[in-house]
Amino acid sequence: MGQNLHQQLQQASQQLHEAQETARQAQGSDAQLLQQAQQQLLQVEQGLQNAQEESGSEATENPQFQQAYEQLHDTRQQLQEAQQNNSDVL
């Protein structure tokens, strides 16, 4: 596996953790934190897309890539639910 791909996946994974943490902190209350988590997820998605563009199937077949992509999707769903709950409260 290329060193560059490995670094990109590590970075995406780290950013994903930060986004998940931000989403947890925002749960049910803080619209600004939800927005921040949304931005972090966009960065993760961009990082994964870059890795895919540069490394092709080597990236998409990588278990770390697949896991990061699944977590990205799950976290995005959690965020959408949290935003929905926030707008219900308002």
Automatic annotation (TrEMBL):
The keyword Protease does not apply. Residues 50-69, 77-90 have a biased composition (Polar residues). Its EC number is 2.1.1.354. It comes from the Bacteria. The keyword NADP does not apply. GO terms for biological process: methylation. This is Histone-lysine N-methyltransferase MLL2. It comes from Virgibacillus natechei.
